[in-house]
Design brief:
With 86 residues, the protein is an all-beta fold. The chain contains no helices and seven strands. The chain has a five-stranded antiparallel beta sheet, with no helix packed on it. A two-stranded antiparallel ribbon has the order 6-7.
């Protein structure tokens, strides 16, 4: 899968992927410089013609990394691995 950064209609930076993605997926996104960075899909904002445009989770909204599911989570959310509250 190819994933690159793109500007969304909201004006925020998002990700353009060439394979199906869903919220929570981790994507290896390549910058123009060639540097790769891992991003987590927050939501898919548009899809069509073999392209998925996604908003990504903002680091400032992420509180901690869950030891069970290995995701960055907000306190009070539910762990998809155990079903317990974070």
């Amino acid at each position: 899968m190819n994933a690159t950064y793109t500007k969304l209609k909201s004006g925020e930076w998002g990700v353009r992927a060439t394979s199906e993605v869903k919220p929570g997926d981790r994507l290896n996104v390549v910058k123009k410089s060639g540097e790769a960075k891992t991003e987590v899909v927050d939501r898919v904002v548009w899809t069509g013609g073999g392209v998925w445009l996604c908003a990504t989770r903002q680091k400032s909204k992420l509180q901690f990394k869950c030891e069970e599911c290995d995701e960055y989570v907000v306190s009070g959310s539910q762990c998809w691995e155990t079903g317990c509250q974070h």
